[in-house]
Amino acid sequence: MNTFSRVAVVTATLTIGLGALSACGANDDGGDDGGGGGDKEKKIALLLPETKTTRYESFDKPLFEAAVKKMCDTCTVEYLNADQDASKQQQQAQSAITNGAKVLVLDPVDGKAATTIVKSAQSSKVPVVAYDRFIEGADYYVSFDNERVGQMQAEALVKATGDQGDILMLNGSPTDPNAAQFKEGAHSVLDKSNLKIVAEYDNPDWSPDNAQKFTSSQFNKIEPQDLAGVYAANDGQAGGVFAAFKAAGVAKIPPITGQDAELAAIQRIIAGDQYMTVYKPIRREAEKAAQLATDLANSVDIAGTEDVDGVASFILDPIVVEKDNIDDTIVKDGFYTVEDICTPEYADACKAAGLS
User: Fold this and answer.
1) What residues contact residue 302 under an 8 Å CB cut-off, 6+ apart?
2) Rounded Cα gap, residues 140 and 130, in angstroms
3) Which region is the signal sequence (predicted)?
4) pTM for the model
5) Which domains does the chain have, with CATH numbers?
């Protein structure tokens, strides 16, 4: 059953546009400026889980910070990264609350452990926006349809393999609630297909190194050239899988899935070394979270949510990216330029793909 019990709570939509926010501070609850209290600094804490996945430092953080700056000239962002340590993230969150954060925007290392952060924040009347990963009991949730991501990956793998043969399956971290949804979505497709999962792995920290080691270890039991494909839940793991095949001397890499549209993954797709990725337009997600956070900091009413397991949510649509639609998706959105992708090493592949 789809874990997203998505029931519209409010039919109005919340405009993403950066200029849509009303004058910052109009509903401010503080500020001894004698002019109605509009310019007291409002702290918004952005807590991200790790740095091994390139999107967080390269996209989520700067996009969120830029959006907040445009939306609210009295808001400041306190950025904290937990380096895949749930205890560290709890300490960071408590510190942010103690230091006067008006809102926590939290992408949890461990979704279950993060419920403690939510309770602590709410006891201090600080709302929590679960960002990208679901947290039970959070005030709001902004993400993509994660089960659909897994389905898209699996559907692409079925298509690429002709629905025949043995595959490996590499999932995300068991402590990441999104990973469970990707996995569920993928299994809903793969379990009905003719593909046989000969080995499955839940990667403790989404580590590309772990993905490479797991894949290489399977080559002690399976001839790598006999594999029809590999389900990798994200691009970091896809890179580890690819490295394992190359180290094993495999000339023709079987189809490998991915997610996050990392630059290295787009280049592998251009070169034929990765079959696909799932592009989640991070700009839209970061700007939606920024608008939500600034609205909450300024006591603006929130509209346009859906219900996801009891949490008011904004759920965005992911996009499958293969070689033939890179230009119409990644490049068109300005996520990467052709120059970013088509470095000298990939110039010939880009030309062949019509991307030069």
Assistant:
1) 14, 140, 292, 295, 296, 312
2) 6
3) 1-25
4) 0.78
5) 7-30+39-145+282-316 (3.40.50.2300), 146-280+319-352 (3.40.50.2300)
